[in-house]
Recover the amino acids of this structure.
């Protein structure tokens, strides 16, 4: 059901209405457990949220009530089919975090509708249904905002608690919502039947082999739970956004690949376009920090190490020995790379190639089915998991690569065409040394969000190797 609980502002342009959407009872699905414990892969980050902004051409001048009603009613059906999204993230007296799905914790999904009397001029932060960095305790798992512009453009922005799921799980839900809105039949077999956050069930026979699971590279177990974020993550940062054309990425991969005469090439070693991009951006941040004399705070490598570290997320679903995983939760086992600081500071292709090969090697070793199974065992071992909050990880640079996901695909069509644009939100606060990559599938162009400490911003923008391949499109 959908209930209009508040209406803020005054009727007319820039009027915002707020609804609360509850799940339907149309499909007679079995209820989820009243409490779904979260896994260590879910809680290794604080309760931030994933944003997804999609922009559509309107099928007709002005949004009629029927269009809004269709979005609300189809969302209510999708919430029934993905029952945990209607729940609320809670923690018990021991600090264990779980999704509460009992009646008391089904508080409904906020659904905002705004009419603007100006034409669409690009993504902005105020299109989001919520703009906080950390979700307060008791927040709804999902929030949605629909904005209609004078020109007819419709923005559909959604925010989900990242502790509940990762981007793949979020997109599965958004695609289902759009499928219902289009009036298509739903294949219930393609929706998870088991809502437990137990990724080890997809790696049966591989997990639990280690008698004492040791920390994976880049991870550690603290003697007592951490009381806050590492100092390096809290330093003020500057955000820039860049565009790499498809041809520029192709050239980058060619330039950073091992030369024909190198031992790496003779040994059959290779790199992907993603490896080349990661190597370039890792070097850009390292050079900006070094040239601006950025202080090395807690969580950064030491000067004496002569190395820098990279922590990067990789979706583990395609690496299950059982094949396709119908899993709703976080399944991004981070992999950790160490590279020579001198290679990262260098502007030569040879140095960048060595960095890219280090990234490829780390990914191959740490994202194998066996390595993922060991990481799951490490997270689940009571010696590490109890009390919660003792597992920690760090890296000089943190990267998220969303290029494999099509944020504008036809599956996200609500019935009036696929999105003509999609983003991970605008504005926002990010830690320094953070990179997010997204790709526009139609053109092949890649868009980068890139951050560094404030004192390194000018050095980063002026980096000659970065400017050789990318164009700056925005800076904060």
């Amino acid at each position: 059901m959908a209930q209009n609980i508040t209406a803020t502002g005054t009727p007319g342009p820039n009027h915002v209405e707020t609804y609360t959407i509850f799940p339907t009872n149309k499909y007679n699905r079995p209820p989820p457990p009243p409490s779904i414990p979260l896994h260590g892969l879910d809680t290794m980050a604080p309760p931030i949220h994933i944003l997804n902004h999609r922009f559509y051409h309107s099928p007709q001048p002005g949004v009629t009530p029927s269009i809004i009603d269709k979005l609300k009613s189809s969302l209510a059906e999708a919430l029934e089919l993905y029952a945990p999204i209607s729940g609320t993230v809670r923690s018990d007296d021991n600090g264990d975090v779980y999704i509460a799905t009992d009646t008391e914790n089904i508080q409904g999904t906020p659904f905002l509708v705004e009419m603007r009397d100006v034409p669409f001029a690009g993504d902005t932060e105020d299109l989001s249904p919520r703009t906080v960095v950390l979700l307060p305790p008791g927040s709804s798992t999902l929030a949605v905002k629909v904005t209609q512009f004078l020109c007819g453009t419709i923005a559909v922005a959604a925010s989900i608690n990242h502790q509940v799921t990762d981007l793949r799980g979020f997109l599965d839900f958004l695609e289902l919502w759009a499928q219902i809105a289009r009036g298509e039949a739903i294949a219930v077999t393609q929706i998870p039947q088991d809502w437990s956050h137990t990724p080890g069930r997809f790696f049966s026979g591989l997990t639990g082999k280690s008698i004492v699971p040791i920390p994976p590279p880049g991870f550690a177990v603290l003697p007592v739970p951490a009381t806050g974020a590492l100092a390096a993550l809290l330093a003020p940062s500057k955000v820039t956004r860049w565009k790499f054309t498809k041809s520029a990425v192709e050239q980058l991969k060619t330039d950073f690949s091992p030369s024909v005469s190198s031992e790496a090439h003779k040994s059959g070693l290779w790199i992907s376009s993603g490896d080349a991009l990661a190597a370039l951006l890792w070097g850009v941040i390292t050079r900006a920090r070094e040239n601006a004399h950025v202080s090395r705070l807690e969580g950064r490598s030491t000067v004496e190490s002569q190395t820098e570290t990279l922590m990067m997320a990789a979706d583990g679903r395609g690496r299950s020995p059982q094949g396709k995983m119908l899993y709703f939760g976080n399944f991004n086992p981070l992999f950790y790379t160490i590279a020579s600081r001198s290679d990262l500071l260098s502007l030569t292709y040879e140095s960048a190639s060595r960095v890219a090969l280090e990234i490829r090697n780390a990914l191959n070793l740490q994202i194998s089915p066996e390595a993922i199974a060991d990481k799951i065992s490490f997270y689940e071992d009571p010696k590490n998991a109890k009390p919660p909050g003792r597992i920690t990880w760090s890296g000089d640079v943190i990267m998220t690569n969303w290029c494999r996901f099509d944020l504008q695909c036809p599956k996200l069509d609500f019935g009036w065409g696929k999105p003509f644009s999609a983003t991970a939100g605008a504005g926002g606060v990010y830690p320094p040394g953070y990179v997010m990559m997204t790709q526009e599938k139609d053109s092949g162009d890649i868009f980068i969000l890139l951050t560094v400490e404030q004192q390194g911003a000018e050095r980063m923008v002026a980096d000659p190797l970065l400017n050789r391949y990318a164009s700056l499109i925005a800076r904060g």
Q: What stands out?
A: The CA atoms of residues 316 and 332 lie 6 Å apart.
